[in-house]
Amino acid sequence: MLWLSLLTLLVPGQVPVRSLPFHAPDPPTPRHAGPSEADQEFAEEYLRHFYGYQPKSERQRRSVDSGGDADWRTGLCDKLQNMQRFFGLPPSGQLTQETVAVMKKPRCGLSDVERFEDTIRWRRRTLSYRISGSNLPISASKLHKVFRAAWKLWSSVAPMKFHKRRRREADIVISFHNGDHKDGSPFDGKGGILAHAFLPGSGVGGDVHFDAEEAWSFNSTGYNLFAVAAHEFGHALGLPHSSDPGAIMYPAYIFDPSYELRLSFRDVKDIQRLYGVSTNFASLFSKNPPPRTPDKCDPDLSFDAVTELQQEVLFFKDRFMWRKHPQFDETGITLINSLWPDSAPPSLDAAYQNVRENLIVFFKGHQYWLLRQQVLEEGFPRNISDLGFPSRVKSVDAALHFRNDSYTVFFTGRECWKYNEQQKMMEESPALIEQMWPGIPAPIDAAVFYDGFVHFFQGNIHYKYDSNSRHVISTSAANEVLECNKEDNETLRERR
Ligand SMILES: [Zn+2]
Ligand SMILES: [Zn+2]
């Protein structure tokens, strides 16, 4: 791998204090996209705090600057790759702008790599909790209501009971603190770290601390206290962080007001492994089981939509997506709204990237969304009839963009439509898929052009198609495009 000096990335006027040992982004990333000195310092501290990176002494650093200790550089790079894998980013070991942006998102204060022993858990199944301290952001009665609901998430799946205490000592003490509160993990003011908790045990064991400076709320303004409490209570019961972005134990703050906050399948498995299964679990969840995050190793996996995005190919499923980067075999899963907060709908029908205009277009039902630089264009979503579809077309199954010829093919049921991106109009009346794309079944789920071929997806089948000779080159399981590697499989890794 290429090691570039930070000096080559500095814009004129900046003075290097010392170079930090992150991989510099490879060309063609614009020079100005290189990480700033402040971001590099921030990233090093982040990796120290959350990924077990141990900085060397100043003397060793100086030897790095003079070209010495390569192990130290490699060590930091490895930790950065661990972080990128955890969050479903391409594991480049490069401090990209996107990586820095993920690091700066609000999150829990606990490490992502500490693996707790299974034996760290409460021996009793009935635990007490109390709210302590004076700087409560909301009235105690409202807090109790929120916390009761958060405990209930856990007690409905595991055989546990949680009792509130007003005065006497309790197993779990919940409190709000400003800045340094003398437990070795100071809070950092608005944003950043929102809360932390202690593993089960005596004394501070099981205690939960919230950053008093956050704008706590009961809805989607500020930080939703219920969502953060549900996560921290998981730690108080002995759970570590999960890299499953659908799990409550995912370390980043995620609150989507359009989703009911629930424990995921992963959260339920993890807590039940510690404490067993609640007696009424089956009856409570038989009709509405805990949601499972889609798994790239599932041979029945299908996709909602697939699109190119810059060098990557994105595969969408429910509110998640996998990112396939040409330089890496691994594909990480992440939430759609981690890249497009608030502006991309879940469970898409179709998506494509208009490279020339630097736009990404999403389809769901009768609407479409136009985003530029991750921001929704004004006046969107709009009705797909604006693109020239007749009113009988209610939704779009797939969109296939050809950047060189600047047109897009839309698939709806058994038909396909050609849209001229330069004239912004539908070119002709629709054709039948079976005539235009012989060998491709209808309706299809998703279509994308990359590596010189068109890739169609229907159910769990992937059709690789040569658009010149107009025939199917090969078929395979859809999930094979994501390179399921059993050793990389998040599911297996976390269950080890
Ligand atoms: Zn946490
Ligand atoms: Zn604390």
From TrEMBL:
InterPro entries: Hemopexin-like_dom, Hemopexin-like_repeat, Hemopexin_CS, M10A_MMP, Pept_M10_metallopeptidase, Pept_M10A, Peptidase_Metallo, Peptidoglycan-bd-like. Its main location: secreted. It holds the Pfam family Hemopexin. Its cofactor is Zn(2+); Ca(2+). GO terms for molecular function: metalloendopeptidase activity; zinc ion binding. Residues 1-19 form the signal peptide. Hemopexin repeats lie at residues 294-343, 345-391, 393-440, 441-484. It comes from the Eukaryota. Belongs to the peptidase M10A family. This is Collagenase 3.
